[in-house]
Specification:
90 residues, two-stranded antiparallel sheet, Transl_B-barrel_sf
Amino acid sequence: MRPIEFVELRGDPVADGESVRLAGRCYQGPIQVGDVFTEAAGQEVRLRVDGILFYGKPVPELHPSESGQLTLTGDGLEHVVAGVSLRGAP
């Protein structure tokens, strides 16, 4: 199991009720499409990475120190707020 961590840095996660998009940086990874975050802001969640954009282009993974935009779905979307740290170990 590889640990993954992503921190929201722009301060403007966008939720549409079924998903949330947020921009930030990968601190541990790589983070891959299909990975699941299990912790957000100290709360238990189950948020699946449905998409990754890197410089506006879809990519299959984001590496440590790279910035990008994630689209997440699942349980716990309400915990994805400005500055949130997301962690998991897919």
